Amino acid sequence: IYMMNLKNTNLKSKDAITILSKANESLETLDISENKKLKKEVYELITNKFVSNPYSNLTTLRLSGNLIGDE
User: Fold this and answer.
1) What is the predicted pLDDT for the residue at 1?
2) Do residues 8 and 34 touch, judged by C-beta distance below 8 A?
3) pTM of the entire structure?
4) What is the arrangement of strands in the sheet containing 60-62, beginning at the earlier edge strand?
């Protein structure tokens, strides 16, 4: 999988973590925008697995419309 479009899917953190945990470093585009129920743990997973990982191929990350940092 090179692209994952989860935009505006009403994702909950538990579901997002399950899905993203199964994705591998070949993922190039991730769109989880417009999912207001995501919690801090999802963004930590994305950071650790894709953003900070030197083996990750992620080049596009869309987070707009989310409540990052809000509980």
Assistant:
1) 81
2) yes
3) 0.90
4) 3-5, 29-31, 60-62
